[in-house]
Design goal:
0% strand; mainly alpha
Length: 233
Amino acid sequence: MGCGISFVKYVLFFFNLIVALLGLAVVGIGVAVLLNWTVLKSELEGHITVAPWVFIVIGAIMFVIAFFGCCGAIRESHCMVVTYAVFLLVIIIVQVALGVLLFAYQQNLKAALVKSVDKLFDNAKNDEASKTLFSNLEQQLECCGKYSPADYYLNVPKSCCTKLGVTGKLLGDTCTIADANSTGCSTKLGEQYEKWSKVIAGVAIGLACIEVVGALFSLCLANSIRNMDRRYA
C-alpha cells in the first residue's frame, strides 16, 4: 500500500478532532457577535447582519464534516472517507472564496457599515428607539457621535463619556465635549471592521491550507482501504 493505513487513520482522526473543536470555536464566535451586536440588529444593512449567522453555519458544517471524517477513519469506511474528502474540498473552496472576497470588497463593506451607523445617528434625532440603540453603541465602542462629539454641539449625552472629568462632575455629572470620547462611532466601527476583516480573511485562508492536508490524508486513506479490500476480496 502507498500509505500505512494505521498511521494515516490515526492522523486523520486527530486532525478531524482538531477541526471539530475549531468548528465549535467558530460557532462560539458567531453566537458572541450575534449577542453583543444586537444593538445594531434592526438598523444595519442585511448583508452585514447576516455575518454572524454565516459564522454559525460554517462552524456547524465544519463540526459535522469533521465528525463524519472521524467516524470514517475509525471504521475504515472507503465510502465515508471519500465523501468526507469531497465535502472538505468544497469547504476549502468556500473558505478561500470568502477570504478573497473579504480582501477584495473590504472597502465596500466598510462603507456600507459606516453608512448604516450614520443612518442610525440621524434617526436617533427623532426616534427614541434609535436613540437608545445609538447610546448602547457609544457605550460598547467607547465612541461619540458620527465622527466626533462636535456632532452633538453642546448637548453631549452621558453615553459618550467613559468617565467624567473634573468639569463634568462640577456641572452635576454632565458629559462635556472635553470629557467625551474623541472618536466618532462611524470612524471607530470602520477601523474595527478594517482590522478584524483582515484577521478573519487570513484565518479562513490559513484554515483552508491546513484542511488541504486533511483532504490529502483522507484520499490516501481511502486508497489504502480500497487496496486492502481488493486484497482480501
